[in-house]
Structure formats: structure tokens, C-alpha cells
Write a structure and sequence with these properties.
six-stranded mixed beta sheet, 2 helices, mainly beta, Immunoglobulin-like, elongated, 295 residues, 41% strand, 3 domains, disordered N terminus, disordered C terminus
Length: 295
């Protein structure tokens, strides 16, 4: 009676938890290693898979592509020079930033399949980021300041400074910045001004940081916000119109006085029919003023 009860309880636990004897596990689920150093990715599996179990290691990079590291228990050609196997574990030498990603240990045997995943983060300190700051912008326009470091691993987070003062990522939560209209994205390094104002003029620089090394910054750059010079535009248009009027008057006067050579077309009032005289053309129209056009 007691034995039956124990067996029943065991079966209940097995059914409710889904525990199976076919287990694949890792004691290194999250590996962080400095670039150019080595590390071990560990994998173990239960004997239920059998003595002839098939073992494979696969690499899934951060872009989503997949390659074999170990196929049927043997390192592939592209990894053979820096990967060795001991038991079911993977030993990698001279890790590079291209090795960032997920590594899956896959075991199959006796009609069953199991896998364990190891995340590898290669630690690379940031480099001085590339910053783009426009030197002159117009009030009320959209302005983007960008900051990017392609080398840091894990990907760095970004901070922006104006005149040496740190800009909070959420200005609405910081007194003194509640009237600010900028938008700052610490993940991609963009600092946006949907409608830039004169008060946004200043000296800007960006800083990139991760947990692999010290923060790095770009050189400060000045951004000046100017009002749209409407008066200057109006004056420019008026001057252009005056210039065209003076030019038209001069041409008319030269035509009238006969100072224009025969390489010109003369349009004189009289008739619609053109009359060709030498290398001069007269267009006669009683409704048209005299016009002189250079060929």
C-alpha cells in the first residue's frame, strides 16, 4: 500500500512538471570574456541519450545567422584552429568581438533531442565616438545630433553634454530642464530637437560607456541657432526686381538709340507678319511695345 502510494506520487510529480531523463544542461549560461582571451562553454547531458549520442555546437550571431562550430563531435573547418573539445565542452581561444552571440549545445540520441544555450558577451572598451553636430541651424527647424561607437561591446550607452552640463535622458523629470524640448536616446546616441530654439545654442559633445572600460568622448562642437532673416530675404527680392527693371530699361534705351548691332532681334509694332531684312527680323504687332532681344 505504501509503495503504491509512493509510485503514484512520483508519477504525479513527473506528469505535472514534465521532467524527463533526457536532459541537456550548462553550468555557464552567461559567459563574459575580454577580447583576445579564451573561455570554456560547458555542456552536459544525461546518459539516457545513449553511448552513441550525437553532439553539435551551433553559433547564432547578433544578426541572426547560424553556423556550425562542432558538427557530429568534430570542430568545423572555420573553427578548427581555435576550438577544441573536451568531453562535451567547448574550449575557445582568442575570442574576438565577432564571437558575440548565442551558442547552443544540441544532443540527440535514442530518438530524443535536447539543447542548452550559452550567451557569450565579448568585452571591448568603447572608442571615441563619431559625433555629428551642425554648426548653424535655423530656429523652429528639426535638428539631429548623432553619436556612434561601432567598436564597444556590449553596445555602449550614450550621454550628451551641453556647455559641460549633462543632459538628462528624460528632461521632464529634472527641475531646470522641464521646459526643454529635446529627445535623447541613450541606446542609439541620437539627440533630437523637433523645433530648435535660440536657447539651444551651445557647445555639445557625446560620451559612450559600457562595463568593459572607461567612457570615451568626442570633441566639443559649437551649434549656433539663428532666427530666419525675413527682412534680408525681402530686401534681396526687392533689389533683384530693381536690377531687372534697370536692365530692361537699359536694353530698351539702347534699342531706341540704335546702339544695338544687327545680331539682335527687333520687335516693332505694326503687324503679325515677320519681315526679314538682311540679318534683321521685324515682328510687327500694333499691340506690342518695342522689344529688343539679344541672339
Amino acid at each position: 500500500m505504501f509503495v503504491t502510494l509512493v509510485v503514484s506520487v512520483a508519477l504525479f510529480i513527473f506528469t505535472s512538471t514534465g521532467v524527463s531523463g533526457f536532459d541537456v544542461t550548462t553550468s555557464t549560461p552567461d559567459v563574459r570574456v575580454k577580447e583576445n582571451e579564451g573561455t570554456d562553454l560547458k555542456c552536459s547531458y544525461s546518459p539516457d541519450f545513449g553511448a552513441s549520442a550525437r553532439l553539435e555546437w551551433k553559433f547564432h550571431d547578433i544578426k541572426g545567422s547560424q553556423t556550425y562550430v562542432v558538427f557530429d563531435g568534430t570542430p568545423t573547418t572555420s573553427y578548427a584552429g581555435r576550438v577544441t573539445m573536451y568531453e562535451s565542452n567547448l574550449r575557445m581561444s582568442k575570442i574576438t568581438r565577432q564571437d558575440n552571440g548565442l551558442y547552443s549545445c544540441e544532443v540527440s540520441g535514442n530518438g530524443k533531442f535536447g539543447e542548452a544555450t550559452v550567451k557569450v558577451t565579448v568585452l571591448v572598451a568603447p572608442s571615441p565616438p563619431a559625433c555629428k553636430v551642425p554648426s548653424t541651424v535655423t530656429t523652429g527647424t528639426y535638428v539631429l545630433l548623432s553619436c556612434n561607437d561601432p567598436d564597444g561591446s556590449p553596445p555602449p550607452t550614450y550621454s550628451w553634454y551641453k556647455d559641460g552640463v549633462l543632459l538628462p535622458s528624460d528632461p521632464s523629470k529634472v527641475s531646470g530642464f522641464k521646459n526643454a524640448t529635446y529627445k535623447l536616446n541613450p541606446q542609439n546616441g541620437n539627440l533630437e530637437f523637433p523645433s530648435v530654439a535660440k536657447g539651444d545654442s551651445g557647445q555639445y559633445y557625446c560620451s559612450a560607456v559600457n562595463d568593459a572600460g572607461p567612457a570615451q568622448s568626442c570633441k566639443p562642437m559649437q551649434m549656433e541657432v539663428r532666427d530666419l532673416n525675413i527682412a534680408g530675404i525681402v530686401i534681396g527680392v526687392i533689389l533683384l526686381l530693381l536690377l531687372l527693371a534697370v536692365l530692361g530699361f537699359v536694353i530698351w534705351y539702347l534699342c531706341k538709340k540704335g546702339y544695338i548691332s544687327r545680331e539682335f532681334f527687333f520687335l516693332t509694332p505694326s503687324s503679325h507678319s515677320p519681315a526679314i531684312m538682311g540679318n534683321m527680323i521685324e515682328l510687327r504687332d500694333a499691340h506690342l511695345p518695342t522689344i529688343c532681344i539679344l541672339v
